[in-house]
Recover the amino acids of this structure.
């Protein structure tokens, strides 16, 4: 039971970081990114390649994964920043699938590595300093610390004039344009920032799981992240973490429930997806702003402007 | 009143498919005025606004502002060149508060770069405080001071018009283009809005105004141009222009859903 909770908390941490990054792009900037998993995938793959194949130190490899994902985010926004929202959404889905198919068809480090075989033997950071029992606890603490740092970063970004401008973009280009904002650069930077944070989640996942394969990064995974954001409350960074806790708890419940519920595990696996779907429908119908709606930012009248 | 025109539109043509929305429009707006642009529905007023502000590229013709070519610039570059527009329909981000909308409008904010926001923390903070004070001053002037922390979506139609005017002021342009500043606004608020615009003009703010309400046009504008079917058919002082037979006919000839012949005649 404790092991399960540590595992669950680690998954919540990793996917929480991923949902923060989607919230930055969708919840704040209004970018309907249907290929969000691509950042997670790039963070995981680039970090693995740099560490396993190029022999880089683990944390440097993770940083490379973050940079690669951020760069890909900017790249996705560059040619597409003038597309209408629906066309843009489709292009993101395509971009993510293209990257996945490249990894699915590329051998990395030997005849039975990379491609559909995936990559195994990914080293875990600081492993030598812990016993096998305490390492999972350490990793959980590390992931949750990174989550907290990312949350603080997102809050800070939202409070800056940059954050205010990307928030305005979510309701259309006309007003920001008429006020002189270079909207394409804001979209590109929002995509890069969200991409980098998503890449960090992917790197943390790869070095925790010690194995990655293209199967982990199917379009379905993007929709799981979307479920977390919609359920928790788009625009509210704490909300999307709450959404992550709920979705991850349901998603991982089979591991735990199989000991208590006399249902076939495959059936249980399908039931949990139905449960997530029903939850999303209920939230959209009855709480369209999510469990924890976006907060209003108040600006008190400064003493110099007492009217 | 005299001297070089601040805004000059020369021989502007715009076609939508086979329809000529603007067919050789010339307009010359001097500095220091409230200049009115009127005309029946579909005459091309909003299209001309879109051409001036970069939202539509003209097929032919030039737009010059303070000696600088505007045609070919993107809308944001036009705004940075000193021409800020409002929109006929409400487009302000409604899930942002009135104050967030105002602060959004402040020009050249160094905190729009995350790098500078992180490295020049104190400077960005000082800039924010200055903008906040100015935003409250402007909001007080347009009677929205106590709505600062309300969502823009909760404002009435007239208040939204005032917010877009306030945003334009916050942007600090040399000329403000108002697209129907009093349409759909209750009569008492209309007088207030007109008074505010007049006061701002006395303070040196240039305006180009599209409006259907002829009473407001008469009382507000120093000069007007009349657009009909993509042509300027008259220009001059409002009283004189609105008394002209061809102007009257332009309105009468195309009495659509929002025909204003009565408004033209009314004294």
């Amino acid at each position: 039971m404790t092991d399960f909770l540590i595992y669950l908390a680690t998954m919540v941490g990793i996917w929480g970081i991923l949902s923060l990054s989607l919230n930055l792009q969708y919840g704040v900037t209004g970018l309907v990114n249907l290929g969000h998993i691509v950042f997670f995938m790039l963070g995981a793959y680039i970090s693995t390649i740099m560490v396993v194949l190029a022999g880089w130190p683990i944390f440097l490899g993770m940083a490379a994964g973050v940079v690669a994902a951020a760069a890909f985010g900017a790249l996705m926004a560059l040619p597409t920043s003038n597309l209408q929202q629906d066309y843009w959404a489709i292009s993101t889905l395509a971009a993510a699938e293209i990257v996945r198919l490249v990894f699915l068809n590329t051998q990395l480090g030997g005849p039975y590595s990379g491609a559909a075989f995936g990559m195994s033997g990914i080293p875990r950071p600081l492993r030598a300093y812990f016993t096998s029992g305490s390492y999972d606890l350490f990793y959980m603490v590390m992931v949750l610390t990174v989550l907290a740092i990312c949350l603080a970063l997102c809050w800070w970004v939202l409070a800056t004039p940059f954050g205010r401008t990307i928030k305005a973009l979510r309701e259309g280009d006309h007003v920001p344009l008429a006020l002189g904002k270079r909207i394409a650069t804001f979209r590109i930077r929002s995509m890069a920032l969200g991409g980098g944070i998503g890449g960090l989640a992917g790197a943390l996942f790869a070095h925790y799981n010690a194995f990655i394969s293209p199967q982990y990064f199917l379009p379905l995974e993007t929709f799981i992240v979307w479920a977390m954001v919609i359920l928790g409350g788009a625009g509210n960074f704490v909300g999307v973490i709450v959404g992550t806790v709920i979705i991850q708890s349901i998603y991982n419940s089979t591991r735990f429930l199989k000991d208590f519920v006399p249902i076939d595990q495959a059936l249980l696996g399908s039931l949990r997806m139905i449960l997530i779907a029903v939850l999303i429908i209920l939230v959209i119908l009855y709480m369209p702003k999510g469990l924890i709606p976006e907060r209003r930012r108040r600006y008190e009248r400064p003493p110099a402007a007492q009217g | 009143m005299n001297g070089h025109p601040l805004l000059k539109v020369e021989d502007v043509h715009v076609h939508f498919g086979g329809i000529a929305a603007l067919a050789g429009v010339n307009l010359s707006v001097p500095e220091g005025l409230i200049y009115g642009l009127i005309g029946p529905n579909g005459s091309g007023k909003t299209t001309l606004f879109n051409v001036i502000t970069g939202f539509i590229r003209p097929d032919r013709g030039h737009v010059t502002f303070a000696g600088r070519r505007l045609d070919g610039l993107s809308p944001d570059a036009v705004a940075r060149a000193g021409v800020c527009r409002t929109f006929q329909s409400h487009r302000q981000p409604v899930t942002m508060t009135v104050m967030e909308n105002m602060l959004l409008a402040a020009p050249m904010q160094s905190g729009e770069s995350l790098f500078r926001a992180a490295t020049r923390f104190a400077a960005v903070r000082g800039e924010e405080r200055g903008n906040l004070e100015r935003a409250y001053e402007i909001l007080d002037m347009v009677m929205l001071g106590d709505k600062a922390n309300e969502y823009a979506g909760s404002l009435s139609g007239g208040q939204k018009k005032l917010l877009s005017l306030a945003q334009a002021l916050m942007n600090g342009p040399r000329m403000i283009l108002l697209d129907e500043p009093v349409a759909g606004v209750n009569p008492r608020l209309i007088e207030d809005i007109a008074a505010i615009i007049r006061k701002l003009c006395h303070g040196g703010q240039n305006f180009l105004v599209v409006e259907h309400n002829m009473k407001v046009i008469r009382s507000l504008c120093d000069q007007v141009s009349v657009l009909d079917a993509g042509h300027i058919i008259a220009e001059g002082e409002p009283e004189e222009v609105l008394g002209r037979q061809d102007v009257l006919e332009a309105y009468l000839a195309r009495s659509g859903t929002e025909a204003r012949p009565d408004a033209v005649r009314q004294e």
Summary: Residues 87 and 134 of chain A are 48 Å apart (CA to CA). The interface with chain B takes residues 157, 160-162, 164-165, 167-168, 170-172, 174-183, 186, 189, 193, 235, 294, 296-299, 301-302, 304-305, 307 of chain A (CB under 8 Å). Residues 2-218 of chain A form one domain. The mean pLDDT of chain A is 93.
